[in-house]
Specification:
single chain; mainly alpha; 85% helix
Length: 555
């Protein structure tokens, strides 16, 4: 007998909870049926539809549409706020059913009204809902931009709950866009706002998103318990969409852990809820998950079947036609705003013309107007003369600066030529001194038998030097010719290169060796090698690629 007691207690609590729910539903339905005044009846329909949003989307949509039907022939201004509120709720219904173009259309209708009223809080709510549509369409940058607009408006009106919801959803888009640090910052801000309000349901929403973030970071010991806690809470309050999402999120963690059975179990639970409630987007991702898991466990027949179902569901949600519809709605909305602005400008211009006509018709002010025009003309002439003088002064200064820079460049060029001549003379003198030393040591002081061999060695060195000098004698002109365009190109592509480094690049482009560069620049081998390393780093030359080849490919 004792074993039936827990079952009995469960049934009692279940029926008590169901009775409490039914009492709320009955009260709301009674308000709708007994309302006589149109505004009261529509308000009751709104409340009943909002209550049904968490339970039955079709019924919720029916109540909202019925509310619009009651307003069909109502033109009075005091009905417009109710009409806009119904548009927003119908946008929510269609968004959760993955009818994204219809959702955007309803949101834009509401936005038009709230903009005429300058209602910042309501405008922010619409931006938030539009951002959700873009998020489901995987257009994360657009979603982030709309969330930020909503948050900025909520900060203006000091809406704590709106700020918490905005940061929570902004965190989701950042996470889906792989910006994990930004996502975590947003979740912490949302948690702070909802903690201040002591909003338990909203806090669970933040914890659910944090759990997903932990899963992405592979912190499964944190993500899985948090998701199971959230799932238990959402089952208790009957929030079907959140239940569906938490099932899927748990499946995702087990998939990453390669626990295929648990992943399949939770994916199937998510699919069942999505099918029951008509959550088209959740149906699509659940089929995709089941297909993937079946393929991993070797059940390719079920994997193929679920993938076919995923394709059908996905094509229904994410298709080119939907994108075109949404873009058309956006463009139409922008066009209407511009049209309104043009209309306002036309009215202003018309009033201005009327005022001028009245002024001209009144002869009392003719002389005053003439005097004013004369003064304005004199002022304009003076201003033009002054501006002309300033421009001429600037042109003279600019001409002076250009001539000064040109002169400085010529001086620099001459200085470089002198340095090169000095270096060349120094090199030639050093060679002659070395040659004289070798003649004294290896020829004059040598034994008769070795003298012939020494003379031959010196003759070979002298020939090599003559060849090098012939090569170098025409090299400077060739370097200058190459440098004219190549140096300018280097300055544009790699402005961090020094003048000396650009000269070395020009020499490397001519395929000169390190020894030849050392001779031309009159520097050591280590200096040339060090400069090559700096050039590679500044030009970001890929590893394994020769510097000479990289420079030659720039042309």
């Amino acid at each position: 007998m004792k074993k039936y007691i827990p079952l009995f207690l469960f049934l009692v609590s279940f029926f008590s909870f169901s009775q409490e729910k039914d009492t709320t539903l009955i009260r709301l339905q009674k308000d709708v049926n007994e309302s006589v005044i149109d505004t009261s009846k529509i308000k009751a329909m709104l409340h009943l539809g909002e209550y049904q949003l968490k339970r039955d989307f079709d019924k919720a949509e029916a109540y909202f549409l019925d509310g619009l039907n009651h307003l069909q022939n109502k033109q009075e201004n005091y009905y417009e706020p109710f009409r806009a509120a119904l548009y927003v709720q119908l946008g929510v219904v269609n968004r959760r059913k993955a009818n994204y173009p219809e959702a955007i259309a309803y949101y834009i209708k509401a936005l038009r009204f709230y903009e005429t009223q300058n209602n910042s809080s309501k405008i922010a709510d619409v931006y938030h809902n539009i951002a959700l549509v873009y998020r489901y369409q995987k257009e994360h940058q657009k979603a982030i931009a709309h969330y930020k607009k909503a948050i900025a408006l909520k900060e203006m009106v000091k809406d704590t709950h709106g700020l918490g919801a905005g940061y929570n959803m902004l965190g989701v888009s950042y996470r889906q866009n792989k910006q994990l640090d930004s996502a975590l910052i947003c979740y912490r801000k949302a948690e702070e706002f909802f903690t201040t309000m002591d909003s338990k349901e909203d806090l669970h929403g933040v914890y659910g998103n944090l759990a997903v973030l932990y899963g992405v970071q592979k912190k499964y010991d944190q993500s899985i318990p948090l998701k199971k806690t959230n799932l238990k809470y959402y089952k208790k309050i009957g929030k079907r969409l959140s239940i569906c999402v938490e099932y899927y999120n748990l499946s995702d963690d087990y998939k990453k852990m390669k626990d295929w059975q648990n992943s399949l179990k939770y994916a199937d639970s998510s699919l069942q809820v999505a099918l029951e409630e008509g959550f088209e987007e959740r149906v699509s991702v659940a089929y995709r998950r089941k297909s993937y898991v079946y393929s991993k466990i070797g059940n390719f027949e079920d994997a193929y079947e679920n993938y076919r179902k995923f394709n059908r569901a996905s094509d229904k949600i994410f298709n080119l036609e939907n994108e075109k519809k949404i873009q058309a709605l956006e463009l139409n909305y922008q066009f209407e705003k511009e049209k309104q602005a043009d209309s306002l400008q036309f009215v202003l211009e018309k009033k201005e013309v009327e005022l001028k006509a009245k002024a001209e018709a009144s002869k009392k002010y003719i002389y005053l107007v003439l005097l004013l025009v004369t003064m304005l003309g004199a002022g304009a002439v003076g201003w033009l003369l002054r501006r002309n003088h300033q421009q001429r002064t600037k042109m003279v200064q600019l001409q002076y600066e250009n001539e000064r820079k040109s002169l400085e460049q010529k001086i620099e060029t001459k200085e470089e030529d002198i340095k090169k001549l000095i270096a060349d003379n120094t090199m030639r003198l050093a060679f002659k001194e070395e040659l004289l030393h070798k003649i004294k040591k290896e020829v004059l002081d040598a034994e008769p038998g070795k003298m012939s061999k020494s003379i031959q060695s010196l003759t070979s060195q002298l020939k090599r030097q003559i060849t090098t000098e012939r090569k170098l004698s025409g090299l400077q002109d060739k370097i200058d010719q190459v440098n004219k365009q190549f140096d300018t190109q280097l300055q544009q592509l790699y402005p961090e290169l020094t003048k000396g480094e650009r000269e070395v690049c020009s020499l490397l482009r001519l395929d000169l060796s390190i020894k030849e560069i050392m001779t031309i620049r009159n520097v050591s081998v280590d200096s040339v090698k060090s400069m090559r390393r700096r050039i590679r780093k500044k030009m970001n030359v890929p590893e394994g690629k020769e510097l000479e080849q990289f420079i030659q490919e720039l042309a």
